[in-house]
Amino acid sequence: SRDGTAGIVARLAAESDRVRLLRHERNRGYGAALTTGFRATSGAFVMFMDADRQFDIRDLRLLAPFAGEYDIVAGFRMERSDPIHRRIFAELFNVAVRVLFGVHLRDIDCAFKLFRGDLLRSLDLSAPGALINTEIQAKARRQGARLIQVGVHHYPRVAGRASGGSLRVILRAVWETVLLWWRLHAYRPPAAASTTKGPYLLGDAA
To answer: What is the pTM of this model?
Structure first.
């Protein structure tokens, strides 16, 4: 990020041992940033969200009640506050993910999810960009993870500029999708990482 986020987090980390700054010296992509964060965790549960103010951290209370029963509690944007072209691209991508990877989520790229920590850390993740969400779900599905979807609020962007709808980003996502589809043909989940919850299950919360 070219803004002042790192400096703000460093100051907060100096004030509280509950805050920790993890930083790449160069931009390695959204997926690489999440993977670095996941690998640094140690808790029983891991949650991530985008910090562009389109989500409200207080919505974690909607996901938390399901954490003990499900391996993944995936938020979906009940009313997506994005331009129409981004919503169209997202729906087309959701369809492609269902067809290619067998992952049936309402909102695969919703950046508001809660995971069982050991499951998330067991995944060998490599997607550098936005396809990281698809890779997580596809590999967790292979490991029999139980998943439930919970609606969360989504708010209009009030600062910054989204790049997810640019042609360059879309073409790169298409290429990464093909590579991930190819790599998953040879993917074998680690034996010690399989869940004890039974076969893959997808459910929705009211």
So the answer is: 0.84
